Amino acid sequence: MFIRGKAPEAISAEIVEALARVQTSTLGHLRDHGFPRGLVPVRRPLGFVGTAFTVRLPQLDSTALHVAVDELRPGDVLVVDQSGDSRSCFGGMVAYTAAARGAVGAVISGAINDVQEILELGLPVFSSGVSALTTRILGVEGAINVPVTVGGAVIRPGDVVFGDSDGVAVLAPGEALEIAETLQDKESSEPALKDKISGGGRLAEWSGALAAFEGHPAE
C-alpha cells in the first residue's frame, strides 16, 4: 500500500535566515529532544535550513523515494525513514534529482552510496554511513509526507530541519524564530567571554562549574 500525504507548507525565508546565523550545538546546550542520533555528514563544513519533505520506506523497497524525489521543491530537505534497514537508498541519481529540484539537504536514516558523485554535487547529506548494498524498486509499499522517525527523532512534514557541521536538529515552525533569537543571544556573549579568558578569567567561574565542583562533598 502506498500513501501520499499533502505537500507541506514551506518555512519562511525569515526562519531560514535566522537559523543560518546560529549553530545546532548551541541548541544542544539547551534541550535534548529533536536531534536525530547516529547520523554523520557526507562532508564538513556544511549547513542548511529547510522544510522537511518526508518519506517512509519499508526497508528494501525504495519505490516511494523515487516518486518523492521528483516532487521536491526549492528549499526542501529530503528526510527518509528506512524502517531500520541499513542498505543505501540514496545514490548518485537520487541525489542528482534532489539537487536538480532545489533541495537544500537530505537526512537519511540508512546508508548512502555513490559518495564521490554526491560530493561533487555539493548537496549536504546526513546518513548512517556508506554501503554498496542498495534498496530496490519492488512496488510493495511506502509513504510520502507522513510523520517519520529518524535516529529516534520524530519528524513531521513541514518541520524545520536545521543542519550544520555539528549535527541536525528538528524544530516546529512555530517555535523556530524564538529559538533562533535565544541561540543568537547565547552566541553573542561568547566574544566577550573569550576576551575575559584571554585576560586570565576562568571558564569554570562563568559556567558555574567551579562553584558546583567546590560545593561537592570530598570523597
What does it look like?
With 219 residues, the protein is an alpha/beta fold. It contains nine helices and 14 strands. The strands form three sheets. Strands 1, 2, 3, 4, 6, 8, 10, 13 and 14 form a nine-stranded mixed sheet that branches. Strands 5-7-9 form a three-stranded parallel sheet. A two-stranded antiparallel ribbon has the order 11-12. The longest helix has 16 residues, at 173-188. The radius of gyration is 20 Å and the shape is elongated.
Please describe the structure with a list of short key phrases separated by commas or semicolons.
single chain, 219 residues, three-stranded parallel β-sheet, 33% helix, 25% strand, elongated
Give a summary of the structure in a few sentences:
This protein is 33% helix and 25% strand. It has 219 residues and is of the alpha/beta class.
What layout of secondary structure does this protein have?
Elements: E1 2-4, H1 13-19, H2 24-28, E2 40-41, E3 47-56, H3 63-70, E4 76-81, E5 88-90, H4 92-101, E6 105-108, E7 111-112, H5 115-121, E8 125-127, E9 129-130, E10 142-144, E11 148-150, E12 153-155, E13 160-164, E14 167-171, H6 173-188, H7 190-198, H8 203-207, H9 209-214
Parallel strand pairs: 1-10, 3-4, 4-6, 5-7, 6-8, 7-9
Antiparallel strand pairs: 2-8, 3-10, 3-13, 11-12, 13-14
Helix pairs in contact: 1-6, 3-4, 4-5
